[in-house]
């Protein structure tokens, strides 16, 4: 048996899904809630407090962590990358569901 040849099954890394926001910063738990990564705001806060959310590669426990464009968020099997909407200066419905 050739010890240099290993049969390994590599899982393909999950791709980040881009999420546009119309203003920054936005609180971490709100993104989890409005992107349907959790069922409610309370569930989002609990997930963050328990250390189940990763922001920019690090475990994040601040529920109200200010998220900016360019930040990445990982929770469960989902990965998202935050982008600032190109028309962020115009009236737009942002991820929080409010009109700006």
Description:
Strand 6 and strand 7 (78-84) form a beta hairpin. The longest helix has 9 residues, at 41-49. The termini are far apart. The chain contains two helices and seven strands. It has a five-stranded mixed β-sheet. The protein has a two-stranded antiparallel sheet with strand order 2-5. With 100 residues, it is α+β, with helices and mostly antiparallel strands. The protein has a domain at 17-84: Structural Genomics Hypothetical 15.5 Kd Protein In mrcA-pckA Intergenic Region, Chain A (Roll), CATH 3.10.290. 19% of the residues are buried.
Key structural traits:
five-stranded mixed β-sheet; single chain; 100 residues; 2 helices
Mean pLDDT: 83
CATH class of the domain at 17-84: Alpha Beta
The CATH architecture of the domain at 17-84 is Roll
Indicate the multimeric state.
single chain
Total number of strands: 7
Radius of gyration: 17 Å
- CATH topology of the domain at 17-84, by name, is Structural Genomics Hypothetical 15.5 Kd Protein In mrcA-pckA Intergenic Region, Chain A
- Based on CA inertia axes, which overall geometry fits? globular
Strand portion, in percent? 25-35%
Query: Could you spell the SSE succession in H and E letters?
Result: EEHHEEEEE
> What structural category do the secondary elements indicate?
alpha+beta
Strand order of the largest sheet: 1-7-6-3-4
